[in-house]
Amino acid sequence: MELRHLRTFVVAAEMLHFARAAEALGVAPPTLTQQVQEIERNLGAKLFTRARRAVALTPAGAVFLTEARAVLARFDRAESVGRRAGRGEIGRIELGYVGSAAYNGTLQSELSRFRSSRPEVEIHARELAMPEIAGAVADGSLDVGFVRLPMDLPSNLGRHILARDNFCVALCANHPLAGLAAAVDPRTIACEAFIAPEQGSGLDEVARRGDFRPNVVASPGSLVAVVTQVSLGAGVSVIPDVVRSAIHIPNVVFLQLTGDPIQSEVAAIFRTRDPSAAVQTFVRQMRRQGRRLRSRPQGDA
To answer: Alpha-carbon torsion 172, 176, 180, 184, what sign?
Structure first.
């Protein structure tokens, strides 16, 4: 028995007039009669009683009508869900992010925009250590990652820059340089102990400009942990200046660096051939919005 048989039966049962039912279905009356007979043979039960001027459902026909309607409704729903999934309107996205992607609002704005246009797509977001994110996206554990560049990416991943900010220096409030009104020259911190954040490109560039090899005494992970170590006097750190307004920990001073700003980029990473329409839709949205990069002036809180 096929779905066309169920549709034929339901129309005939609702109209209780084979000629009108045949017209509604766009088939000849003998064809409709033949399909009804096929259903009855298949079930081994009479579904209609037929008189010259009247058609009525048998008790078996009434029970079968309820079930046939339910099957057709489930099929129609499945068909609708499949089409919507194909358009990226429903589905699930697993997302990983580094904390600083949330500090500057990039993560929130992208998710809010997507949820407004695709409210039935489930998004599960969680903070992870940055070294974990690229591998998780590459192996399918995550669909999208929000990271800070530069970083090495597996060959099956693409990236799209969403925002830029600049690096600054974080020092304990009782540090001799903390009271400076001027920006810090990289050479003046050459002998400091450094607390290294997950993204070390800022410190690398400061060391290059100051012509020194940094003495890294700790790499505690998240920016909150980094700033906490700085506040305790364990060392200084080169971190994105978005932290100045996002993390409020006592006993820390943030200073600009001399010379051209050292930029840091927040980017989305994703599989270049992802089969999920929901993920593809999310990536397209980020590409459109990411053309207008947010650039924070150095020292802007």
So the answer is: negative
